[in-house]
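Reminder to self: tokens first, then the designed residues, so the page reads top to bottom the way the pipeline ran.
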């Protein structure tokens, strides 16, 4: 990941400029997100951190120096470069590139480019639904719909287009795993919908193998994004849209409140 960030933003060229970080001179404590502390044996540090509060200890609010600084008006590709995990970054670009090289239209390419955006830097659980919501105000309705339903379609084969139940899912969940009822229902809804194939194509280009030395420059998608993603001039997170808070959560994932 480091090499990717360095490539895009060489030292001294941080997009957010050289402004000082907030809460200067104090230790900025980070409280993990509650959802990351549930059920995994992690100790919830909230009481201990609250007990440490004094003139020198505060909870972090605003830019975290441990993260690459985001520009004031972040674009979609800024999130790709500065916030997404390395796996999500590569996975989404590869998926979009495969769709593009196969000759699909821009809606399909966009759906592939954005399909796992939620697991990129926000939440894995129900990622199709979160991802569809994140991009909903900025893309064609069909693109958001396809992203929402790809989560369910991944569990169900479609021999007519050569899609089999993923080997990766046998490894991830065990060969006897059965998806829950709401996923089955979502699959049925999608199967009977006129946009079914848009979502199905996401599952076809949803490939988790990367070649050594593989590299796709995200700039390759700048024109397609320009035509298919209504990038707000205020930046993602600051346009007052119903999902702006979700983008801000990725900009400042360590804010206490
Ligand atoms: Fe996915
Ligand atoms: Fe995926």
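Designed residues (257 positions):
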């Amino acid at each position: 990941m480091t090499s990717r960030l360095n490539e895009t933003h060489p030292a001294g060229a941080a997009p957010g400029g050289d402004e000082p970080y907030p809460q200067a001179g104090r230790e900025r404590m980070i409280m993990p997100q509650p959802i990351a502390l549930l059920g995994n044996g992690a100790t919830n540090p909230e009481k201990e951190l609250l007990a440490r509060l004094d003139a020198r200890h505060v909870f972090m609010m605003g830019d975290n120096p441990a993260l690459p600084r985001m520009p004031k008006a972040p674009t979609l590709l800024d999130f790709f470069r500065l916030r997404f995990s390395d796996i999500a970054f590569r996975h989404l670009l590869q998926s979009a590139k495969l769709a593009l090289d196969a000759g699909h239209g821009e809606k399909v390419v966009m759906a592939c480019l954005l399909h796992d955006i939620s697991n990129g830097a926000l939440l894995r659980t129900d990622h199709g639904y979160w991802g569809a919501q994140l991009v909903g105000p900025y893309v064609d309705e069909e693109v958001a719909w396809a992203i929402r339903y790809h989560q369910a379609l991944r569990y169900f084969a479609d021999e007519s287009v050569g899609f089999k139940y993923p080997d990766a899912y046998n490894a991830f969940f065990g060969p006897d795993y059965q998806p829950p009822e709401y996923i089955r229902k979502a699959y049925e809804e999608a199967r009977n919908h006129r946009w079914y194939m848009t979502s199905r194509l996401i599952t076809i280009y949803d490939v988790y193998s990367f070649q050594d030395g593989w590299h796709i420059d995200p700039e390759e998608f700048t024109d397609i994004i320009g035509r298919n993603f209504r990038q707000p001039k205020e930046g993602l997170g600051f346009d007052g849209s119903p999902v702006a808070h979700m983008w801000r959560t990725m900009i400042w994932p360590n804010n206490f409140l």
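Residues 91, 115-116, 206 surround fe (ii) ion (ligand 2) (CB under 6 Å).
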